[in-house]
Write a structure and sequence with these properties.
single chain; alpha/beta; nine-stranded mixed beta sheet; six-stranded mixed beta sheet
């Protein structure tokens, strides 16, 4: 069985779809671009999102929220930083996002589907052996909702993939005080840079030998083609390198950092090699 994680190319935004080994669908954020609709792509495959995670309600992370039910999706489980007040969220967004925020609060306030532990998306007995954990700190100041972003950690067959929102150093340092978070992220193989690879999302303590992730094999940046992703060199420095394949026929190459801006959508696959029985981690770019 295989775990697949798609990091879509949506410019300056975020949209990630994961398919667990037993077939559940996890959607992290609802970003899109003028050229590509992740929800439209997903609807050609499934009609149910088993776990929708909105890392934080900034406009570029909820761009497709009006299409969620227009495409007929059923959402079984929802995570969002529900401790943020409506006033705090609206103050943090441009007025042009008013209608999308209306829908976000409608969904957030009305979502009350109880999930029993034996059905919880994140429980490895439900997900074919994959664990999906979400961490966030509500202790940071409310003037910057980036610091209330959720961080999602996938683990399958000993391989860990860390997917944050727009976390900045303040929230990273709070999370590093949590032994459960440190244990879940330590030794991660793939790390998605927070805040689209900007310097404002970079926290050196994350890569500390004692309490941080240490040295991931590969860092991934979800960014736009006109954005200044000024911390790319820093994330490249912290990675140990991994072979990245190409769907376009180009030769595979060892990389330390890939970006949706220059490499297109990124696909991460984790599974067992049927011939050897060994775990494999395959990463492919466009």
């Amino acid at each position: 069985m295989t775990m697949r994680i798609f990091i879509h190319d949506v410019g300056h935004g975020q949209a990630i779809h994961a398919f667990t080994p037993s077939g559940q669908v996890v959607a992290i954020d609802l970003g899109c671009s003028d050229l590509f609709s992740p929800l439209k792509w997903l609807r050609t495959k499934v009609s149910t999102i088993d776990n929708l995670i909105i890392t934080h309600p900034h406009g570029d992370h909820i761009d497709e929220i009006l299409l969620l039910f227009a495409y007929g999706f059923k959402v079984r489980q929802l995570w969002r930083p529900k401790w943020l007040t409506e006033q705090e969220v609206r103050f943090a967004n441009q007025a042009s996002y008013a209608a999308k925020l209306d829908r976000y609060f409608e969904i957030s306030q009305n979502f009350s589907v109880p999930i029993e532990p034996e059905n919880f998306i994140g429980n490895p007995t439900v997900n074919g052996g994959a664990t999906i954990s979400t961490f966030a700190s509500n202790r940071c100041g409310r003037s910057n909702i980036n610091n209330h972003s959720g961080v999602v950690v996938f683990e399958y067959l000993g391989v860990r993939v860390v997917v944050p929102g727009d976390n900045e150093p303040t929230s990273w340092r709070e999370l590093l005080k949590d032994p459960t978070f440190v244990s879940a992220t330590k030794g991660a193989h793939v790390f998605l840079a927070s805040h689209h690879g900007r310097q404002s999302g970079y926290c050196p303590e994350l890569f500390d030998e004692a309490s941080g992730i240490k040295k991931p094999n590969l860092c991934v940046i979800s960014d736009g083609r006109v954005q200044d992703t000024d911390a790319t060199a820093r994330f490249t420095y912290h990675a140990s390198g991994w072979c990245v394949h190409s769907r376009g026929g180009s030769p595979s190459e060892d990389r330390y950092c890939v970006t949706t801006r220059s490499d297109g959508a990124i696909i991460i696959e984790i599974g067992n090699d049927y011939n050897t029985g060994n775990t494999y981690l395959s990463i492919t770019k466009e």
